[in-house]
Amino acid sequence: MAFLPLxxxxxxxxxxxxxxxxxxxxxxxxxxxxxAIRAAGIIIGGRGGTPYGVSYRIDCTAGWAVLSFSVETTxxxxxxxxxxxxxxxxxxxxxxxxxxxxxxxxxxxxxxxxNSLPIRRLELAPQDGTAKLSMLYIPYDRFEPVRDHQNYTxxxxxxxxxxxxEDRDFTVDLPVDADGLVIDYPIYFRRVHL
Length: 194
Hints:
Layout lengths: L8 E7 L4 E9 L8 E9 L6 E9 L5 E8 L4 E6 L5 E3 L13 E4 L7 H7 L7 E9 L7 E11 L3 E6 L4 E6 L8 E2 L3 E4 L2
Parallel strand pairs: 8-9
Antiparallel strand pairs: 1-2, 1-14, 2-3, 3-4, 4-5, 5-6, 6-7, 9-10, 10-11, 11-12, 13-14
């Protein structure tokens, strides 16, 4: 079995504590640069007592490897990086970022969507065991990317995946829909029905 081919889709998540919302539109695209999937979203929130407003765009290959992303805050901070889809990153002006070599996926703070990137890309089955990944993580407080180690395990194919942070004691089971998009992120986020 495999996830359904992606159709244009809009989803929203609301934090389980405090105010906020993530609004995401994701669709296949025909792009001369080779990208086949585009995700565009807006996140507003205030976890940790600090309010934030962020817009983002992520372009991926047909196999869900990230090719580029841009993130911009409402206070004017912006970050945009480009990848070859194999985990080699550079800035928009071409400066190589070897400290992120091997990071194929990204993780945006406050976004349950970015957990779907490795879930869709890997299409793990229970017999595959745990995938140990290096992620390019973007926190909104410093807005500087860092390498983060995360583990993903398939519990039920195309339905339930376990996420575990490698550097701290945090594990959560993430149910996904037929598109591989996270439905609920226990403790933190819940899907809003449109």
